[in-house]
Amino acid sequence: MTIRTLIVDDSASMQAVIRRKLDADPMIEVVGTASSADEARAQIKALDPDVVTLDIEMPGMNGLEFLERLMRLRPTPVVMLSTLTSHGAEVSLTALELGAFDCFDKAALPLAVDPTGAPGLADLIRAAAQSRPAATGRREIVSYRHAEPEAFRAKPRSMIAIGASTGGVETLIALLTDFPANCPPTVIVQHMPTSFTASFAARLDRLCPPRVEEARAGAPLVAGTVYLAPGGDRHLEIAGVGDKRHCRLVEGDKVSGHRPSVDRLFHSVARLARADAVGVILTGMGGDGAEGLKAMRDAGSVTIGQDKATCVVYGMPAVAHRIGAVSEQQPLGRIAARLIAECRA
User: Fold this and answer.
1) In this protein, which residues make up the domain named CheB-type methylesterase (predicted)?
2) Could you give all domains of the chain from N- to C-terminal order, each with its CATH number?
3) Catalytic: 165?
């Protein structure tokens, strides 16, 4: 079965570039194009596409406004096209929060293969077709918090390690807003472009009770702080002795197709923190993090996988579950409470 795709972009030349890119994939059929929000609305009603590619910059109603209305009234998998620069990071993050499946860098469209190793546009279209967007643009998340933040006291040396990819922006916001302000030290690898991570860390810091910062080499792991791996050419690991742990940023080849890699982080946690740590693998394409989570479980860590029903893409958690890396699966709304329970003194 082909994936019926609608291209929405105000540039006719860009529409042609996108169409050529997608026509090369036998699984994808471009069923139409639109140059404005009004045209896109009419085309979606007439064609009922499986996936929409949407330009953020459009005349009249911009892509974000159209996305918000689309996800509220007719939830559809959407891949946003943007210039993934520091300037575009904030609007792209907003698009992901509003329910876009993912963002694709327009600069990579003319390339046969993205030199960064990021998924191609056709890859994202295929994955988006398997996703389940929810009405209102934000997937429903049920909170099961049982204790107020001030009631929490962590076990000495406890820590949390988290890996996420596609769908991780809104998932991490939902998860960390249920964390207490004095949470155990928490380290995260979220696959995203280099220009996004500083903006995303700042956004999480504004929205969530604990402090959230982009990880720095040598930064000590302290309670009440969440460390987000910077995008780019280094892996995030933890290092240290006993309860004196710190962040380490390490150059190296990609691991499981990614840099920073969830596997690389989890393996370092397994070596150093062992049963002191709790590992979590969240929504995402591919299998990064599965082997590292298995190492954590073998070292004595409790390991949690997000369940299929609440994942945007049940890829990374599925691989981890299949190889026996996950000690339990939980819906997103329960994960924060489970983490805090495991780390409670």
Assistant:
1) 156-345
2) 3-136 (3.40.50.2300), 149-343 (3.40.50.180)
3) yes
Average pLDDT for residues 179-197, to the nearest whole number? 94
Q: How many residues does the chain have?
A: 345
Beta bridge partners of 250: 235
Q: Other CB atoms closer than 10 Å to residue 195's CB: what's the count?
A: 18
Angle separating helix axes 63-73 and 86-97, nearest 10 degrees: 10
Q: Residue 229: which residues within 8 A CB-CB, separation 6 or more? A: 187, 188, 189, 190, 197, 214, 215, 235, 236, 260, 265
Write out the DSSP string of 120-155: PHHHHHHHHHT----GGGS--------S-GGG--BP
Active site residue 105: no
pLDDT in tens, 248-287: 999 999 999 999 999 999 999 999 999 999 999 999 999 9
Average pLDDT, the chain: 90
- Per annotation, catalytic residue among 25, 50, 102, 191: 191
Where does the chain show beta strands of DSSP type E?
A: 3-8, 28-34, 51-55, 78-82, 102-105, 159-164, 186-190, 211-214, 225-228, 234-241, 244-251, 277-281, 302-306, 328-330
Number of Cβ within 10 Å of residue 148's Cβ equals 8
Told to judge if 191 belongs to the known catalytic residues of this protein, a careful annotator would answer yes
- The C-alpha atoms of residue 82 and residue 253 are separated, in whole angstroms, by 27
Tell me what the mean pLDDT of segment 189-204 comes to. Answer: 93
Among residues 288, 301, 307, 321, the one annotated as catalytic is 288
